[in-house]
Prior knowledge:
- It is a single chain.
- This protein folds into three domains: 1-23 and 245-353 and 378-499; 44-213, no CATH class; 508-695, Immunoglobulin-like (Sandwich), CATH 2.60.40.10.
- It contains ten helices and 49 strands.
- Helix 2 runs antiparallel to helix 3.
- Keywords: Signal.
- Residues 1-20 form the signal peptide.
Amino acid sequence: MRRLTLALAALVALTVPAVADGHAERATLYPSRSVGEVPALRTTGTARVVCKADSAKRLRTSWAGKGPKRTKQRAALLKQLKRCRFEHIQQAVDAAKTGDRILIMPGVYREEPSRAIAVKDPKCEGPTYWEDSGDNHTEDGRVPTFLHQHDCPNARNLIAIIGDSLDADRTCDRKCNLVMEGLGRRARDVVIQGDRKKPDVLRADRADGFQLRNVTVEEGAYNAIDVVETNGFRLSKLVARNTYHYGILTFTSDHGLYEDIEAYGNGDSGVYPGSGPEAHCRGFGIEVRRVNSYGNTLGASGTAGNGTWTHDSDFHGNAAGIANDSFAAGHPGMPQDCSKWTRNEIHSNNWNIFEDDNEAYCNSTTFAQRRKDVVCPVFQVVVGVGFMLYGVNDNTFAENHIYDQWRSAVRMFGVPSVARGETDPAKLLDTSHGNKFTTNTFGMAPDGTRMPNGLDVFWDEQGLRNCWEGNVSAPGVGVTSDPPSLPTCASGGSLNPVGNTLKLAADLPCISWHPRTNPDPPGCTWFTTPPKPGSAAAKAAAARAASGAGAPAALAPLSISAPSQGARGPLTWADTPRGFAPAELPQDRVITGQLRNTSGAPLDVSAAAARMYDETGAEVRGVATFASGFAHGLYSPRVEPKEAEPLFESVRLGRRIVLAPGATTPFTVAWRLTPGARPPSRVTVGTVSIALPATT
């Protein structure tokens, strides 16, 4: 493994950009941790009122009803309406100064002047307005600089609050401490509607002290609400819905609060505090509370989601509940560490949006033309999981209720550093350490109703100091886990830095997921719908497990014989490969091991075009990868990039390897057999042919 890591380090060091972001964002830096705070709710300051022609009617409807409070509020707002001077929110932002309040009367705000500005505004072309993304992430490999956001704020944002001038300090100095508030009784009374073309509906960029309250934001071509490099923000009483990727995204921002958020219908996650504050367990820079996130691919997520405390929230009815991870390259703050999850409900996240009919609709219909009620996943997740934790460190999970998760309540895996483009060999196994699970309730709702999980904990057994203590399930039912015994906190926690190689290998075929070309990769169980615990299908699976045939998530080991001699070449097995059959996919087989370059010359080999053949020369459907752990591609596969995939990205995702003479590399193959078909005996990767062992 060390020889592979050194080879990768030499290769990646030549190709990886100094800073790259995991979504279409420029290179960003964290605000200072030593200054700043969450802005307090404010009702003073110069008011700039925005309204529509029907705002009075909507206002009366919103605040209809008898009673002195309603009557007084209605009268006050109708009086406020007379001060309206702006038809569009961006007009009010343009006129605003530091400390102003932008008050938005009930109505639908489509921001027609901003819509009329082209996404690729010709005023902002040229090298000063764009920088290399370095990661194959955008259509032409470029992302807009801060100068672009400053000079062409409405090219990519329907509404833009750009707080910094063009000085060198990267700090807000012109539109700071702005309050933007809807004046309806509910958030749905003020709707800011994106055009499904501009990436962000509303963007606050270096806008320290920004507050957004009591509005609905929808239909962004990437995000509904995007807060970037901002020190101090408050996002409260919001609805964020029906976007291509994220409902609310904050990135390299600090001293922030999400509260009373409803998020649904988003192709990635409802809320995303990504590249969170780097407090390193000395505190929490972002608080997330009273979030109701449902009907998304993920309820919440955060690559490098550091220093965040999420509590008293409800994540339900998504494909998967929550993801924290370190498997996407270039996010500032990786590997992820030091977040806390307490008193949340994570349940019933079993919605399989990877089913064939949904994928077919998504593949044939552009985002601009899709029905609002359709969610198309922009990357792969494990359907039926509550917490999907990949490469996380020193996090706390306490007093949560995690139930009705048909696959598992918690899934925790390590991620090798090469998966995020890290070149230092000493960091290879630097994730999945120090995570603490205490006083959580598994398989039971807060009212005591038993709603079991398929498995409470599924862990790859990797990492140091991971521990479980004081967790409970329904009366008379213990916490279920794989492995069956979990290390306690009193004992000091786990001791194995490497993990179970078969469990790690079971994830690798899922890297190759592509909604158009490979929507159901052989060997990948992520997209099957697990049987509901207690159902006839679940009982049948349990009976198979009792008879030795394997549990639903089990990896039934295969008997491996020597590889065929007919496919000898410069890449040969360095050890005896291991194999298994996923119980959920009885026609699939997975083989994993190490290959060695036995030639005297370096090999540059691509697994992207791997092909498998049986002894007769007939092709067998399968996938191959050089990855050593799951990694997430950065570019949504639904929109193909114009540029070729950079070498560093191909290496990071296990699609390509440059291997020195004598060096070894991980290699995993998976295939799916149709009835009567023969298993493959060899796999070709480019011009190299590799013998496969026979399996029984």
